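Technical note accompanying the year-one report. For the benefit of new consortium partners, we illustrate the data format agreed upon in the data management plan: each record pairs a sequence with a structure-token string. No post-processing was applied to the example shown here.
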Amino acid sequence: MNDVARKPEADRPPPNPNTKGASRPQDAEAEPTLRDLGLLKRLLPYLRPHWVMLAASFALVPISSLATLLQPYLIKHTLDAVLVQHDEALWMRMVTFFGCAVFAEFVAGFAESYCMQLAGQRSMVDLRREVFRHAQRMRIRYYDNTPIGRVLTRVTNDVDALAELFSSGAVMAIADIITLVGIIVFMLVLDWRLSLITFLALPPLAFSVNWIRKRAREAFRAIRARISELNAYLSEQVQGILVVQAYGREAACAEEYRRINESYRVANYRSIRLDAQLYSVVESVSMCCVALVLFYASVRAGVIEGSARQAAYIGTVVAFYQYIQQFFVPIRDLSTKYTIIQSALAAAERVFSFLANEDVEPVDTEVAPNPALAAGTPAIDFDHVDFSYRGDDIVLHDVSFHVAPGEHVALVGATGAGKTTTVSLLLRLYENTAGAIRVAGRDIRSVPRRELRRSFAVVPQDVFLFAGTVAQNVAFSPNEVDDARVRGALTRVGALDLVERRPEGIHTRVEERGANFSAGERQLLAFARALYRDAPFMILDEATANIDSETEARLQVAVSELMRGRTAIVIAHRLSTIQKADRIIVFHRGQIVEQGTHQQLLELGQVYAHLHQLQFGDSNAAE
């Protein structure tokens, strides 16, 4: 029902410019302040409910690592059994142990990965749900200045990037570290001289990784910002495709999209280049280490006396070669996972920056019943209300009026006069900056938002129909839809026959934004939705602005039915629709300039009479 917050251009904050280059708005959250450990700590509340799966995964790490580490050691003893001891029984035992180690590595590795990914995906479901809930609670003014595509990026792309931590096994980088430490121990036990040669690779490797690390985070931040901009522009163009095609702007828009897409490609290219550099550095250092170790081993083997000792040394070198290969495998894995971690942390910065935005509506805990009106108490009372969207940009100034119980009041005025803003304040979609607004004698700032809004049924100018059926849209609920009540509401607004003409009747599927219904039919469904809600207060915001004459005649009956026995505020540009209102309040530049009945205002001969003359060419009113 947030459609009521749609404001005329004069009421809105200036839109984000749709210009090229640096003038296009950048993501305000692209520069993070949270550190890596802080970001990881923010994930803990989402991981904690799934601690059993996480604990099982981490418990399997030592088993998997040990099974991996034992294999080269068993190869050495197998070779010794054949070349040195010539013991067939020992050889068979070593082969059996080796097979058991391979099997244990497979089972433990599978279970470890399965538990981690299951826990991770469940955690991401919770995080995605939290981001969606937070997006729903953000105040309307946030969406006035934020492209919808940017919000969608938070819920989809950024959370998906975080999910990569688990699906890729990046969280289990600790397993690689454990394996690496174990390999170092086994290498030292086998031959400390060969180990020292291998360890010479660590300083240049550490320097390279640190150099790449600093640039990788910047690259991934740029990627997240560019994809947010890309989604925002795409969302804007899809929603405005009718205007784009009508004005023949396809080529210009495609060129703008190409520019944004190109910047996204460049950001990705930079991250790919850094990732390739890191991988190639690890591979090069690995090959150099193998060459040095084999060279040293061949020299040393030439000075070893005795064929038995030479044969034994063969087993050591083969096992050591396997350990060198394993030594750089976790390093390569760590480099790959490091890239994923940097991408995930860049996404986490944006997700948690969004969640840290406290400009949200508070959560109401209880909804109390509406109190009965005391005699003489206005149903709605505006008392010297001021409002501005930004600083000194005053939209409403000293607005005061009251609506008696059961009274039907119309708000009229030129576009941007403040009519829609007035009802937005009434629903607390925005907060007034001065004065007081009371409903049933209670200041709305003391009333929980759910309780306040439950008292109103709103029919906006731009009707929004959701995915689902006609019945679900009328009831505005995917569950517990009362079909008889839906038919009753449709009958009262004169729309049941239009709906029943369709093969599935009230269970007809509604396409995106009601594309399979005409503007008039969508408006009738909005009236039926308001009737189904059965609230004591009614707000009609330009409810017949987009209706043809035939449908308008049908709607006039529906409007009368809708407002019967209710307190109603009607916003209208078409003065023919509100001539029977109990009172008409005229707005001009954010202030109330006159009020009265239709005839009284015509006789007054001021703003309302001028508006009437402009619409109907009434010479008497002009005079």
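Partners are asked to follow this layout when depositing records. The first strand starts at residue 380 and ends at 390.
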